[in-house]
Write a structure and sequence with these properties.
Length: 128
């Protein structure tokens, strides 16, 4: 994995990967690097959940993220709660197992956080 981040003036930054794809960030006006970290955790976990449901009838999958951060520098994440929303004809036990495995094994992003950062989650299946 390789990347390059360049300052674009003011509070702007561009992250460029080895393929030349760009992600634009702005530490004042957003999305900030911390927003991207938070969104990356959610996206990484959804990859695991959606992939595990690929043979099922799924209508929609999303995750809401709420992170707590230190007040003083470094303003790191101290706790994270994720609420997964899954709509479709899927067994709840399967969805819960996929979420657990995402956090324990597969999600590279959340598993790159410090081990003392609690990640909790809940599931809203078919709107209930």
């Amino acid at each position: 994995m390789e990347g390059h981040v360049r300052w674009t003036g003011g509070t702007g930054l561009d992250g460029v990967n080895a393929a030349g794809q760009t992600v634009t960030m702005d530490w004042s006006n957003g999305p900030s690097p911390m927003h991207l970290l938070l969104h990356s955790i959610g996206a990484c976990s959804l990859v695991d959940v959606v992939g595990g449901l690929s043979r099922r009838s799924v209508e929609a999958v999303s995750v809401d993220l709420r992170a707590e951060r230190r007040v003083e520098p470094p303003r790191s994440i101290t706790a994270l709660h994720m609420t997964y929303h899954v709509d479709g004809d899927v067994p709840e036990v399967l969805v819960r197992r996929l979420i657990e495995k995402s956090h324990s094994t597969y999600c590279s992003v959340s598993n790159s956080l410090r081990e003392d950062i609690p990640i909790t989650w809940d599931l809203v299946l078919n709107g209930s």
